[in-house]
């Protein structure tokens, strides 16, 4: 099958699940994806300035512009559940030298339906089915749950400033380890002077320039200042107790077959007395059971990683990527997850709705089929 045939096959799977075809705006204000993308994706955004001087970006995926359209619809029409399907172009600087700048995503997005483990499993099974319908056999599947780490942190009973800092750090690659390593060390006097300056962002820029340190990772000066202030507050609160550090480090290292994950996470919570994480773990276990009942082959191919899911920061629950032979781990043939807070974030909390979606990449499946 050529590219267009794969698009048609995948789209047929999603359309059979119901939904309204949509092709949302190609261009959107840059602040939306800049705020809602992890550092890796930020560096790959296609940003430009329009004729009015406004900073804009080509849509880096389809979930964001579809959700933006849905937020506008909910504001005008009121709450009602809605499903969308699409086969449309997205634009990102390549993740690998052999990736294209412009590529098609075929997918489905659901808004306003009940949040439940079965709904997550149904979406996963649908995307998995689309991949298999295209003649591609998944070699591995990486899953995560962005609700587990916050639930563990809340259950530790730490001061709120430490809790907030750790949750933010979780969204950055290596962020939790950096917080744990740095918690016992005071900030440099020059950094403290920056934070106490009348204009801390300008003072930070001057300090970076003086030290010949470039901005990296797509973070703004304001975000760096905010993170440093949070770190200072966490140190002032006394850092982290030894037992809390041990629990966080143990959770951070969890990587196992998906079928084993509920038992491993439950044992970890019990060993550290984290009874407050019970609800999140029950929902997680129910989802795993539902996934394995709908896609039996996932018992062999799917793994769980506690730190997985940072590329787009609008995800806030179940996340997954489907990989295939011949491509790197940074080149999944399909991906998806839950983003229940996205509509509220895009609308300034004027409206809200649950959200979950998934996409497949026909261009990558072409390459997998050729190498088979």
What does this entry look like structurally?
The chain is of the alpha+beta class. The protein is 47% helix and 17% strand. It is built from 17 helices and twelve strands. It has helices at 3-16, 31-36, 39-42, 63-77, 117-133, 148-155, 160-170, 175-182, 189-196, 200-210, 221-236, 242-252, 261-271, 278-294, 298-301, 342-346, 362-371; strands at 20-21, 27-29, 47-49, 55-58, 82-91, 102-111, 140-145, 255-257, 302-305, 318-323, 334-338, 355-360. Strands 1-5-6-12-11-10-7-9-8 form a nine-stranded mixed sheet, sandwiched between helices. Strands 2-4-3 form a three-stranded antiparallel sheet. Helix 5 (117-133) packs parallel to helix 14, helix 6 runs antiparallel to helix 7 and helix 7 (160-170) crosses helix 11 (221-236). It starts with a helix and ends with a helix.
How much of the sequence lies in strands comes to: 15-25%
Globally, the shape reads: globular
The N- to C-terminal Cα distance equals 13 Å
Number of H- or I-type helical stretches: 17
Describe the main β-sheet briefly: 9 strands, mixed
The count of DSSP E runs of length 2 or more, i.e. the number of strands, is 12
- Tell me roughly what share of residues is in helical segments: 40-55%
- Structure class: alpha+beta
What is the C-alpha radius of gyration, as a whole number of Å?
A: 21 Å
Reading the helices and strands in chain order gives HEEHHEEHEEHEHHHHHHHEHHHEEEHEH
Low-confidence stretches: none
Average of pLDDT: 90
Order of strands across the widest beta sheet? 1-5-6-12-11-10-7-9-8
């Amino acid at each position: 099958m050529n590219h267009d045939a794969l698009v048609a096959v995948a789209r047929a799977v999603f359309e059979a699940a119901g939904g309204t075809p949509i092709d949302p705006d190609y261009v959107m204000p840059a602040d939306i994806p800049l705020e809602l993308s992890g550092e890796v994706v930020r560096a790959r955004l296609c940003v430009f300035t329009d004729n009015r001087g406004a900073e804009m970006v080509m849509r880096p995926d389809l979930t964001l512009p579809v959700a933006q359209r849905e937020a506008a619809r909910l504001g005008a029409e009121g709450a009602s559940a809605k499903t969308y399907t699409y086969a449309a172009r997205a634009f990102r600087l390549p993740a690998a030298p052999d990736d294209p700048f412009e590529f098609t995503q075929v997918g489905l997005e659901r808004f306003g339906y009940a949040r439940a483990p079965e709904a997550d499993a149904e979406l996963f099974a649908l995307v998995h089915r689309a991949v298999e319908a295209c003649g591609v056999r998944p070699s591995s599947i990486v899953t995560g749950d962005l609700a587990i780490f916050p639930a563990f942190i809340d259950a530790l009973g730490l001061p709120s400033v430490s809790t907030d800092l750790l949750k933010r750090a979780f969204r950055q690659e290596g962020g939790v380890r950096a917080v744990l390593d740095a918690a016992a060390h005071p900030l440099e006097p020059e950094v403290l002077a920056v934070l106490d300056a009348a204009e801390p962002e300008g003072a930070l820029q001057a300090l970076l320039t003086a030290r010949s340190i470039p901005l990296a990772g797509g973070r703004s000066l304001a975000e760096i200042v905010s993170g440093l202030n949070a770190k200072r507050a966490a140190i002032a609160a006394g850092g982290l107790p030894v037992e809390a550090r041990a629990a966080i480090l143990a959770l951070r290292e969890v990587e196992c077959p998906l079928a084993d994950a509920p038992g491993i996470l439950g044992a970890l919570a019990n060993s550290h007395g984290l009874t407050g994480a019970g609800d999140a773990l029950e929902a997680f276990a129910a989802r795993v059971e539902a996934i394995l009942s709908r896609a039996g082959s996932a018992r062999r191919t799917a793994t769980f990683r506690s730190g997985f899911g940072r590329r787009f920061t609008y995800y806030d629950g179940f996340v997954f990527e489907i990989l295939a032979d011949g491509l790197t781990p940074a080149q999944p043939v399909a991906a998806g997850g839950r983003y229940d807070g996205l509509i509220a974030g895009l609308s300034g909390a004027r409206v809200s709705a649950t959200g979950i979606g998934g996409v497949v990449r026909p261009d990558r499946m072409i390459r997998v089929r050729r190498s088979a």
